[in-house]
Amino acid sequence: MTTTKRFWFALILSLPMLANMVLMPFGWTLPGGAWLQFVLTTLVMLISARPFWQSAWASFTKHHANMDTLVAIGTMTAYLYSIYALLTQQAVFFESAAFVVVFVLLGQVFEERMRHNASTAIEKLVDLQAKEAEVWRDEQFVALPLADVVIGDLIRVKPGQKIAVDGVITEGTSTVDESMVTGESMPVTKKIGDAVIGSTINKAGTFTFKAEKVGADTVLAQIVDLVKKAQNSHAPIQKLTDQVSNIFVPVVLIIAILTFLVWYLLIGAPLAQALIFAVAVVVIACPCALGLATPTALMVGTGRSAKMGILIKNGEVLEAANDVQTVVFDKTGTITVGQPVVTDIIGDQKTVLTLAAALEQSSEHPLAQAVLAKAKREKIAVPAAHGFQAIVGQGVSGQVKGQQIFVGSERLLVQQKLTMATNLQAQLQQLQDEAKTVVIVANQQEVLGLIAIQDAPKPTSQAALAELKAQGLKTVMLTGDNQRVAAAIAKEVGIDQVIANVLPQDKADQVQQLQETGRVAFVGDGINDAPALTVADVGIAMGSGTDIAIESGGIVLMRNDLRDVGKALTLSKKTFNRIKLNLFWAFIYNVLGIPVAAGLFYAIGLTLSPELAGLAMAFSSLSVVTSSMLLNKTKITAKSTGSL
Amino acid sequence: MLKIIILIVGVGLIGFILWWFFGKHETTAVQANVEADQQTVAVEVKGGYSPEVVVLKQGVPATLNFTRKDASGCLDRVVFPDWGINQALPQNEAQAIQIDTSEAGEYQWACGMDMFHGKVIVKP
Q: In sequence order, what are the beta bridge partners of B96?
């Protein structure tokens, strides 16, 4: 018999007794009186309540006690005493036993449903997976179940279809909605050579890709695994409840016996009265609320953050994130894009860029790559260069459209005896003060223009740091770059403190030094960040980062958006505060409820009947689970919205 | 006279509870049978777990078959926090749970409300 059926059975049989209780003051009594109550309650005890005492007994033989122990002893005591009272013609309280069963079952019915809801987030993620794929086999595309796809298979994806597994596009282009994995709401353009993620949705075009990761190795499978572990992990705060719950039930039983002894022997209350107090004590104590307080909040909190593209690995991280005071950032690739880009072009934009691109097109130098990328973005037709020549330590030269052109550093000025207009000189100085690398473009006589190149901050970095500052956190940037470049970037995005010239192996030491003043979160993405990510109280890895960084971090930001650092910390704080609130209520229920039930406040007229105690018990665990579910509704917004 | 008897019974009950629940009681560890490179242990879930301690051999794929015989909602899930396993246990249905035995160590499991505990010991 399911809990729900047991509940309905108990409720229906209890209704006549409820009517009796409500209508008694108006002179109506249940036909059959106490005997009918006896029959009804016996049925409730035999059918609805039997699992309680079966479970209680099974636990007892193993030297354990649980909530069922309390319910079984509480209702049995009330029931057995009432039989005795019935036979000796005294007042009975069968209804107490029946009502407690009804209320406890009601609480369990709700709680089961809510707990189920709390744990379904992860199943929804798994459901995202495609069920089958169109795979190239025997010279044609055939639909195969997902499990039959192997590494190296060519898979065709039509518009609107789900991408089955992770791979790389070999033919065609399209836009793909990756929001379910990265949380990024804008569709992403994909062309040949781009990676696609399994279970994301193909929007526009048809393409073919080669499967690279299948089964448990796919990104989605790994996310699911990570979230599952997080949801079922323990937060350190739980140790307290673990200890309490081990001794809770036996202690409550002892308190109940003492309550009875004090009332009956010391105060001299009637037997029935003393028993009612003892039963109320047993029934109100709710170890379940304590046990549910942390896991349910963890489950909802980590599940919600996963939906936002923030993977919090476990409860320990969550608790540590709660009182972080300093956030340390790696510069390259975290605050900045990670590769140099052209930021300014001085002089005639098109001419300068065309000439520079013509000379740089055969170069592999990162600065040359930046120039070429810019030319490509500006859709510039790059002419061919002849007589290409590298001038060591200065730059390159060659003939473009019959003209001798130089592209390179400032040193060209002196060596090639070039002239430069004064306004260009001033701008050169200014760009250098902004910590940018400046490339000079010149013909044989004079400088035609300047190109400034820099590893620029990501568009969202400034907003992200403003958000952290609004939360009252100190921000620090760690970098191997020189002081000047670091300070310029720090100023641009608004960082409090810069630690420059840090060797990769010293990053962790720097984090440790900062830890002397408070808890530190470290945000990074590279292999060299892994030690710092591990040492920090909270390691936050960018999802685009290296596998080792993701492995070392406690929190992974799938969207690679620095603004998620603030969100991750806020979410952790909210979840942890919810755990504390839940524990507070769970303890209060028991700490206040037990003395009231024991009749400690009898003198001021404050008592609890066993029925009310049963109701309170049912709703204590229900309220804890509800409180956790409400985490899904709390607002997590960035105070400042950056431009992107 | 009746009151004295009740007092003695009450105090006796308290003493019994202390001894029964807090006293030292042996829990038996069950060693898995290794057969054809596969080890399996059946765990009965009824007012707790029997056995409560399962000893497995490192490196041999292992399965724990949990069967919940208890109607109580308390034990309707089994959670292994180390592996992110949170398995529903429908009543009277054996649920197979694969255990990762690649690393030696002690791994706790618990019911959904963290009230009942058991553990797996993986020995080299």
A: B65
For residue range A311-338, list pLDDT tens digits in order: 888 888 888 998 899 999 988 878 888 7
Q: Which domain holds residue A540?
A: 315-337+458-553
**Quick check: is B73 in a domain?**
yes
**Is A623 inside any structural domain?**
no
Q: Quote the pLDDT of residue A616.
A: 82
Specify the 3-state DSSP secondary structure of A394.
Answer: coil
A433 catalytically annotated: no
User: For residue B59, what are the domain limits?
Assistant: 27-123
- A144: domain CATH number is 2.70.150.10
Over 60: is that where the pLDDT of A639 sits?
Answer: no
pLDDT digit string, tens, across residues A518-535: 999 999 887 778 888 888
End position of a domain, from candidates A419, A439, A454: A454
Q: Does A133 touch chain B (CB under 8 A)?
A: no
Query: Could you write out the three-class secondary structure of B20-44?
Result: HHHCCCCCCEEECEEECCEEEEEEE
Q: Is B47 in Cβ contact with A59 (below 8 Å)?
A: yes
Q: Give the CATH number, domain containing residue B102.
A: 2.60.40.420
- A634 versus A170: the higher-pLDDT residue is A170
Find how far residue B80's CA is from the centre of its chain.
Answer: 12
Integer Cα distance of A525 and B58 in angstroms = 35
Which residue in B72, B79, B81 is closest to A55 by CB distance?
B72
Q: Taking CB atoms and an 8 Å cutoff, what residues of chain A touch B23? A: 63
Pick from B3, B13, B79: CB nearest A232: B79
> Are A346 and A448 found together in one domain?
yes
Question: Out of A330, A529, A537, A561, which one is annotated catalytic?
Answer: A330
Q: Is the peptide bond before A236 cis (omega within 30 degrees of 0)?
A: no
> Searching chain B, which residue's CA lies closest to the CA of residue A111?
B73
Select, from the ranges A145-154, A250-259, B67-76, B109-118, the one with the highest average predicted confidence (pLDDT): A250-259
**Residue A473: pLDDT above 80?**
yes
Asked if residue A490 and residue A441 are part of one domain, the reply reads: no
Give the CATH number of the domain where residue A448 resides.
3.40.1110.10
List, as ranges, residues 229-288 from A with C-beta within 8 Å of B: 229-234, 238, 241-242, 245, 247, 249-250, 253-254, 257-258, 260-261, 264-265, 287-288
Domains contained in chain A, number: 3
pLDDT at B12: 93
pLDDT over 90 at B100, yes or no: no
For chain B, the domain total comes to 1
ipTM: 0.83
Residue of B nearest to A4 (CA): B73
